[in-house]
Amino acid sequence: MTPRLLVAGIGNIFLGDDAFGPEVIRALAGRPLPPGARVRDYGIRGLDLAYDLLGGCATAVLVDAAPRGHRPGTLTLIEAEPPDGGVPPEAHGMDPAKVLALAAHLGDEPLPRVLVLACEPGVLPSDDDLLPGLSAPVRDAVDRAVDALHSLVPVLLADPAAPPPPLGRPVEPGAPHAAALPGSASGGAQNR
Fold this sequence. Notes:
Radius of gyration: 15 Å
Oligomer: single chain
Number of helices: 4
Strand order of the largest sheet: 2-1-3-5-4
Distance between the termini: 32 Å
């Protein structure tokens, strides 16, 4: 049976805070999500993710480090826009927009709904500089992201088209874990 929801950790473990997605997936090993959710660390394997997006899941949640202009360690939930042809597909690398464009290019079926649970990075070295390990604020955000996924995934498994429980505002470092995502799908606007 095809999982109804894919949780995909993406990022390069050798580029500082870019390792956020894989670290969240590793933390989920100790706190598994409900049945019906497939959890996988894609690292920098964009082609693998593109094919898995075509595998019949209704919803995908990408967990990634993404600069959004907040304090390092801040979590935001973003609804990804469907590819419009303006972003060229790329088979090598892990730019989420290019992976979605590649999946759209490869498949005949519509893509699943894609949400991004993003963490504001503090340290993102260039591709030429290797810096394994997360900065302190991003490391602290890993547990908050796991809490957020435990609130978000059951809602999306029950109804893939449901509005996700809103963050209400970006969840910054020091915010209570339980406030990451409310348990109900009602109220509040999505954070973009």
